[in-house]
């Protein structure tokens, strides 16, 4: 059994990589081009509408007297860039969590991480209303850590009784508890309207300063995820195999957890709680790219960005001139996907 797993790792890291390198590169190029197209579509769509030429002119030949140029540069472009950052961050965070936690159903929204981040942001909005956006982001990352600790604590991780289903149930309970606390605080202090819209996952109102503050931290998280991608490939084969191959299992898990908290916390501070994206994208990319995480991680970056951009476009068109929260649209796609995975895992367990 051990030899079979070692051969599988060797095939993934070397044999399959060499044979399919051209395929991987072609897919990455395609995803990049689709991301660029989705970006321009997102910037062009709005109540006033605009053309690609107008977007290009606003970037190259900005006219301060043009209302459309101002809308594109100051409102739509930051929003589109925010969608790219959030989509990439949540997708990579999900891919890392599914390996580090040995749970194919892992997602920041399902394990209490988003709820923990949202809880701390609600506290910051009420008790530290003058705090800067960087401070809000710090609160969000700290809250993500609290949500993670509570979820793993209630799931029995300390007694090594943890299972994917137990973890999801614990995450659901923690999410419900922290969300209820957040709503209670917001109702008591009169911030419920702003908080409820933000918690539903929205890119509306993003500005350049928010994007510029979160971008370096999200990029750092993406680089950390890429840096441990080869280790994640080995770790995905199981702890026993990883140890036999000399992989630093505990260090990989620690870096993976820190990276996940950084990506999830900054994303929540930027766009609120968005669930299921980190579940959907890694599964799709593994189907296409295979089990090599040095390919899955970059592909997830682009795929997550594309889904977020398109979901935001649909959200603006669905009930124009009002915005439909992007988190709600992603959940409409993600919930059936999650239920399908749960059913599949249950069938696999019965067959064993």
UniProtKB/TrEMBL annotation:
What Gene3D superfamilies does the database record attribute to this sequence?
A: ABC transporter involved in vitamin B12 uptake, BtuC
Keyword hit for Magnesium:
no
Give the way it sits in the membrane.
Multi-pass membrane protein
Query: What subcellular locations does the record give?
Result: Cell membrane
Q: Known Pfam families for this protein?
A: FecCD (PF01032)
User: What do the Gene Ontology cellular component annotations say?
Assistant: plasma membrane
Keywords of this protein's UniProt record, alphabetized?
A: Cell membrane, Membrane, Transmembrane, Transmembrane helix, Transport
> Chief localization class?
membrane
Hey, which family's this protein in?
Answer: Belongs to the binding-protein-dependent transport system permease family. FecCD subfamily.
Q: What is this protein called?
A: Iron ABC transporter permease
Recorded source organism is: Enterocloster aldenensis
